[in-house]
Amino acid sequence: MPQRSDWSDQPCPIARGINVVGDPWTLLILREALSGARRFDEFKRRVGASDNILAARLAAMVADGLLVQRPYSQGDRPRQEYVPTGAAADALPILHAYAAWSHAHRPSSTEEPVFTVSCRTCGHSTDRVEFCDNCGAALEVGNVVWARPGRWQGRAVNLSAGGPPGVDQGRA
């Protein structure tokens, strides 16, 4: 996927990060990968991207170390699933920060109920990005539940501590 600009060699870490997670489709795909989507058709249904956009973003996310490809069928037409890496799990605070910023500065008049982030340790919702504001527990992939509005309401980031099943723990 060609970038509008290549900031991969910039001294600023924000600029370098934009090269990897700055694309809106990438953030939506990352959201779904952390929520359990693994297959092309799942991502397509959940994010609504066209085939060519989705294929390009998935390939870029594999190249950038956010996802790894694993075969899930054999035969005449082998298929691949996309599994989030440790680098993808480490991006969870970015998604939380986007959600918090959007609630504060771009509220939706139709969103009932709202997107919430809850801590599995204490069960309370939190407005913090990395730690629960009620009990102080780390908001990591294995300790977070997302309550999402609309058709995805209640879908959780339900990944086990120490690495979710099927998640590649390598760091990109």
UniProtKB/TrEMBL annotation:
<keyword id="KW-0805">Transcription regulation</keyword>
<protein>
    <submittedName>
        <fullName>Helix-turn-helix domain-containing protein</fullName>
    </submittedName>
</protein>
<keyword id="KW-0804">Transcription</keyword>
<dbReference type="InterPro" id="IPR002577">
    <property type="entry name" value="HTH_HxlR"/>
</dbReference>
<dbReference type="InterPro" id="IPR036390">
    <property type="entry name" value="WH_DNA-bd_sf"/>
</dbReference>
<dbReference type="Pfam" id="PF01638">
    <property type="entry name" value="HxlR"/>
</dbReference>
<feature type="domain" description="HTH hxlR-type">
    <location>
        <begin position="12"/>
        <end position="110"/>
    </location>
</feature>
<dbReference type="InterPro" id="IPR036388">
    <property type="entry name" value="WH-like_DNA-bd_sf"/>
</dbReference>
<keyword id="KW-0238">DNA-binding</keyword>
